[in-house]
Amino acid sequence: MHINRYGFREQPFQMTPDARLFFASSVHSRAYAHLTYGLAQREGFVVVTGEVGAGKTTLVERLCATLDPDGFAVARIATTQVSGDDVVRLVADAFGASSEGSKAAVLMSIAAMLRNAAKRHLLIVDEAQGLPLQALEELRMLSNVTDGGQAPLQTVLLGQPQLRRMLASPDLDQLRQRVLASYHLGGLSREETHAYVEHRLRAVGWEGCPSWEGPALDLVHQYSGGIPRRINRLCSRVLLAGALEGTDELTGPMVEATALELEDDLSGGAPVFASTASLPMEASLDRLTDRVEALERLTARRERIFDRMSELFSDGARAHR
């Protein structure tokens, strides 16, 4: 709906990672530099961690888009709740080697494929924090394959923050020694959140309509923590609300009401005041007052949206007749 209302070519805040919409924030630029540095070493592991939605997959999508397909064979593993033996078979399947027979036979098939191919092989393992230690150790063993003194396989491990704790385990000391570059993706700053939102909008044809109040974008940062996927989810809903209300100006109260609506949707109706329990009494009362006022605005906005949707339905029904 908001595509038509505001004249966008496509959705500016889609949830699916898209390398075309990559935003070179300070944290993502540094993470990308670590990826390219690790790749230039032609061996070992590169590790990128971050919260869910921090942009790890988009970062790797951008990297892969720059790789020469004649020089690289790229394979990805997204299913990580598997045993060590199964991860070996997944690697074989991903690169087109035989995964039939015993584990030893599969390992020999992978080694032969790596040594006989003219390309470098890049394995990307997403959600790597879900792998058991045995599976990570199997990946380390694959990194031992060499051809003429060169390592034909490199591995990028993408994962949530707990992956860093896993790699600190004494049982993974040998794998840790093969990590050539590691970076943790944090959230965007307030200023970068403003720039990110405008970047995504301009990429789909935005020319200033709808306009965003400065305080509105400040609240986008506050409620999203600067995590790109959370920004996308919130801004998409704010645009929908703006389209339904027929407004060309997106305000702070609108962002706040939408954020509370999302919080209510995703918490299953859990109390929204729970976060005030540990605050001093005066601060708790102030926070509760703010939230009550925000909820009142949310209720009023929902009523306006309901009225608008009823009008649209009535207009459509009359046109159909």
From TrEMBL:
Residue ranges of every copy of the AAA+ ATPase domain listed in the record: 42-299
Signal peptide interval: none
Pfam families in the cross-refs: AAA_22 (PF13401)
UniProt-recorded Gene Ontology molecular function terms: ATP hydrolysis activity
PANTHER family assigned: GENERAL SECRETION PATHWAY PROTEIN A-RELATED, MU-LIKE PROPHAGE FLUMU DNA TRANSPOSITION PROTEIN B
UniProt name for this protein: AAA family ATPase
Record organism: Roseomonas indoligenes
